[in-house]
Design a protein that fits this description.
The chain is an alpha+beta fold. The protein has helices at residues 39-47, 95-101, 114-127, 143-155, 173-189, 201-207, 225-231, 355-360, and strands at residues 4-11, 16-23, 28-32, 53-59, 62-66, 71-72, 80-83, 161-165, 194-198, 210-215, 218-224, 243-254, 259-264, 268-269, 272-273, 277-280, 294-300, 304-307, 320-331, 337-344, 347-354, 368-373, 377-378. Strand 10 (210-215) and strand 11 form a beta hairpin.
C-alpha cells in the first residue's frame, strides 16, 4: 500500500501554506501547531473545500487533485469523511436518521452497494458504542455523544480518508476523556487513515502515529511521533506539557502492589536490556492485560531527575532508574531551568533540571548519568 501524497501551496493574508508530505497509508497523522499555522487550511484543501495551487493530492492511489494534469475532484466525488469541531447534526432527526444520512453517498455509485454499507454502519455503531442512542434526538445528547455520532456518520460512507478538525475542542475535560478511548479504538481496529488537527498535547500523545508540525504555514517537523518529539529543538511541547513518548512491552504484572513492569521496546545498553519500568496498573473492565502487549508511555520532563552515580534503589522511593547519556543541554522557557535530552539505549527522555544543578554537578553533553523517573503515564 503506497503512501499518501499531499503537496500544495495556498496564499493566506498572514502566511503562505506550503506543504510536501508523504504520509503512511494507515494510522493517525496529527497536524499540530499553534492557532493560525495552517492546519485547518490544509485539511480543507485535502477535502476540496479550498483549492491549493501547484497541488498534487493522491490518496490510496487515487488522484484527487493534480494541477499538472488539470485534475480537480470536487468534494462530493472524494471518498472522505469530515468531522468538525461542532458535530453539525440535524436537530430535527434522531440519531438513527442522522446516521442514515451518511449513507446517501452510496446512492451516487461512487462507493459500495447499500447493503454492504449498512453492515459498515452497524460496525461503526458498535465501535463507537452508540447503539443505545439510536432513538434519541440529537438535542438530547451530551457533547461527547454528539461527536461520537458525527464520527459514525462520517464512517458510514466508507471513506478512504477520515479528516478530523479539532473534534474535541468544544468539549470540557471530562467529555474529552470520555471520547478519547473511542478514537483510540477506531485507530487500532480500522484500517482507515486519519488526518487529525489538534493543538492538545494530550490528544497528540494518545492518538498520533505520525506527527506533522506546522508553523506559519511551513512544515517544521514530520515523522513517527516519538522520534519527531525527541528530535525537535526547541521541544514542541513546552511548560508542564514537555514530555517524551516511548513504546514499551508489558512484561510483568504485580497484583500485590497494583503495578505493571514494562520493557522499553528494542532498547538495550551494551547488549543488555534495560531494567523494567514500573507504573500503576488497574485491571481493565473489559478483561485482563496480556503479557507481551504493546503500550505507549508518556514521561513528563518535570518527573525526571538525574544522578551522576548509580544510587542504591532501596535508598530511594523512586524505583525507576535508567542508565542514559546526555545528548544535549538546552535552555528552557524559565531562565532558572534547563532541559536535558537523554538517550537511554534507543529511547529518549527529557529531564527538566535547574541551571544551578547543571553547573554544580557539573553536567555536560556526552556524560553518562542515571535518570530517576518518578512517574510514568500509560497513554495507549
Amino acid at each position: 500500500m503506497s503512501n499518501h501524497t499531499i503537496r500544495l501551496t495556498l496564499a493566506r493574508p498572514d502566511f503562505a501554506l506550503q506543504v510536501d508530505l508523504a504520509l503512511p497509508p494507515r494510522g493517525i497523522t496529527v497536524l499540530f501547531g499553534p492557532s493560525g499555522s495552517g492546519k485547518t487550511s490544509l485539511l480543507r484543501c485535502v477535502a476540496g473545500l479550498e483549492r491549493g495551487q501547484q497541488a498534487l493530492i493522491r490518496i490510496a492511489g487515487q488522484v484527487w487533485q493534480d494541477d499538472s494534469q488539470q485534475v480537480f475532484l470536487p468534494t462530493w466525488q472524494r471518498p472522505l469523511g469530515y468531522v468538525f469541531q461542532e458535530a453539525s447534526l440535524f436537530d430535527h432527526l434522531n440519531v438513527q436518521r442522522n446516521l442514515e444520512y451518511g449513507l446517501h453517498r452510496a446512492q451516487s455509485g461512487l462507493l459500495r452497494d447499500r447493503s454492504t454499507l449498512r453492515i459498515s454502519l452497524n460496525e461503526a455503531i458498535e465501535l463507537l458504542g452508540i447503539g443505545h442512542l439510536l432513538k434519541r434526538r440529537s438535542t438530547e445528547l451530551s457533547g461527547g455523544e454528539r461527536q461520537r455520532v458525527a464520527i459514525a456518520r462520517a464512517l458510514a460512507s466508507q471513506p478512504q480518508l477520515l479528516l478530523l478538525d479539532e473534534p474535541l475542542a468544544a468539549l470540557d475535560h471530562a467529555r474529552r476523556q470520555e471520547i478519547l478511548p473511542w478514537l483510540q479504538r477506531l485507530r487500532d481496529e480500522l484500517h482507515i487513515p486519519m488526518l487529525y488537527v489538534t493543538h492538545s498535547a494530550d490528544e497528540l500523545a494518545r492518538l498520533a502515529d505520525t506527527l506533522v508540525v506546522l508553523k506559519a504555514g511551513q512544515v517544521v517537523a514530520q515523522g513517527p511521533v516519538a522520534q519527531t518529539l525527541a528530535a525537535h529543538d526547541p521541544p514542541l511541547l513546552t511548560g508542564d506539557d514537555t514530555a517524551s513518548l516511548m513504546d514499551a512491552t508489558l512484561r510483568e504484572l504485580d497484583a500485590d502492589w497494583s503495578l505493571a513492569g514494562v520493557a522499553l521496546d528494542g532498547v538495550a545498553v551494551d547488549g543488555q536490556a534495560l531494567p523494567l519500568v514500573w507504573l500503576p496498573w488497574s485491571p481493565s473492565p473489559s478483561g485482563s492485560a496480556a503479557i507481551g502487549q504493546r503500550l505507549r508511555l508518556r514521561v513528563l520532563a518535570r518527573d525526571v531527575s538525574v544522578l551522576t552515580a548509580k544510587p542504591q534503589a532501596h535508598h530511594s522511593s523512586i524505583q525507576n532508574l535508567l542508565p542514559c547519556v546526555i545528548e544535549a543541554i538546552a535552555a528552557d522557557a524559565h531562565p532558572a531551568h534547563a532541559l536535558l535530552k537523554l538517550r537511554c539505549g534507543n529511547a529518549w527522555l527529557l529531564a527538566r533540571v535547574t541551571r544551578r544543578a547543571v553547573h554544580t554537578l557539573p553536567l555536560a553533553a556526552g556524560q553518562t548519568v542515571w535518570a530517576q523517573v518518578k512517574s510514568v503515564a500509560l497513554v495507549a
